[in-house]
Amino acid sequence: MKKLLVVLVAAILALPFCVMAQEAGETGETTQVVESVAGTKEFVVYADRNSRENHYAPSGWMGDYGDVKMNDQSTEDPHSGSTCIEFEYTAKRSQGKEWVGVYWQNPANNWGSKKGGYDLTGMTKLTFWARGAKGGEVIEKVKVGGIGIEPKNTYPDSVDAQMGPIELTDVWKQYTINLAGKDLSCVSGGFSWITTADLNLEGAKFFIDDIKFEVDSAMKPEGKKQKEMPFYVYADRSSINHFISSGWMGDYSDLKFNGTSKENPYLGDTCIKIIYGNKASQGSRWAGMFWQEPANNWGTIDAGYDLSKAVKLSFWAHGENGGERIEEFKVGGIMGEYSDSDSANIGPVILNKEWTQYSIDLKGKDMSYIIGGFCWAANLDNNPQGVTFYLDEIKYE
Questions:
Q1: Would you say 312 and 346 are in contact if contact means Cβ atoms under 8 Å apart?
Q2: Cα separation of 151 and 147, whole Å?
Q3: pTM of the prediction?
Q4: pLDDT in tens, 258-280
């Protein structure tokens, strides 16, 4: 019995950091105590297959998850050690989402509803190595945290930090997410990558290795960097676009959106086609759409772009028949804890049947923090049959 007890104690001591501990409060209720990694210089997400240093599980498959295959013990030229992680993405849109991603979570499959995560206070960056099978593969963004923040969940991450897009080369290259000054007191989503079918029309095969949090005193809190112009909301389906057309408003059930329409684009291979039906499904008798950063951000996530160098937003549009009335086209105006710094609009606009360029004047506007990159709104009173119209080349200049 003593021998068995010694073996069990040894096995417990040999386990990696606990997911979390629990304490009994004054009321006797159990409360979450996130496991701290204070004093460590690095904290590994992935080092090698079955490494005792690994933390978090790549369990959070998102979007068109049926399009992805993962091999976390690939021996195809790892950056270090004997293995790396290989992802193969077919871009077939199996779930109809047109995007895909994978989260490393703690515990596995934790979307903010489970107690877990680590207190990574003191870490100032996350680094990882990546390469493409051919080069030219594009990862739209990589992230630390962000789980359960929007919509708000029971145990949300304390941070949502990201970088991207990344165009991979066919040789290993190290990338860094700056975490200096971030609240890392509870991180259930240790790492994630997201990309889209539009950025990888023929799919993508890429490799990731040596993912880890590190203490680096040289890292300083990163402010919002002013974006260079032009800065595209939409250029073409396969372009690196910014903001997501996620903020559907009013009679949202009456909207149909096609960001890959090939019906006579103004420039390039594709344009945006929007159909607004006349059923008044939500009883609003109006509808609209915001392009947001990130998706579905109504001012609850600190993620705005500094577009201070922009003096206007220009776009091309036309109606299916001509005469369609859009009440307004707009930049900014989203309110919340992290509100847009300003707003500007034009309208009403009567669309022509031919492509016509429009612009929103931004001179004198505070464009230092924008999460609502572009917006339109229309109503049934002025369009009793609904509206079908097209957009292309939406960009800040």
A1: no
A2: 9
A3: 0.71
A4: 999 999 999 999 999 999 999 99
How far is 68 from 61, CA to CA, in rounded Å? 9
pLDDT interval class at 29 (50, 70, 90): very low
Evaluate whether residue 224 is within a structural domain: no
Cα 52 versus chain centre, distance:
30
Same structural domain, 266 and 194: no
For the chain, give the mean pLDDT. 90
Amino acid at 376: W
Rounded Cα distance between 390 and 187, Å, is 41
pLDDT at 33: 53
CATH code for position 245: 2.60.120.260
Instruction: Please give the C-alpha separations between residue 37 and each of 115, 211, 214, 291, in angstroms, as whole numbers.
Output: 17, 16, 11, 38
What is residue 223's predicted lDDT score, i.e. its pLDDT? Answer: 77
State the burial class of residue 364 (Cβ atoms within 10 Å of its Cβ: 0-12, 13-18, 19+). Answer: exposed
Whose structure tokens read 């344009």?
A: 271
Structure tokens that stand for 367 in this block: 């464009």
Work out the number of other CB atoms within 10 angstroms of the CB of residue 296.
14
> What CATH number is attached to the domain comprising 177?
2.60.120.430
pLDDT, one tens digit per residue, over 363-393 is 999 999 999 999 999 999 999 999 999 999 9
Residue 4 above 90 pLDDT? Answer: no
Alpha helices by DSSP H, listed for the chain, are 2-14
Distance CA 229, CA 283 (A): 40
CA 166 to chain centre: 13
pLDDT tens per residue across span 111-134? 999 999 999 999 999 999 999 999
Q: Say if residue 145 is in the same domain as residue 43.
A: yes
Phi-psi map region of 56: left, alpha, beta (phi>0 left; psi -120 to 50 alpha): left
SS3 state of residue 160: strand
Same-domain pairing of 253 and 384: yes
- Domain range for 182: 35-214
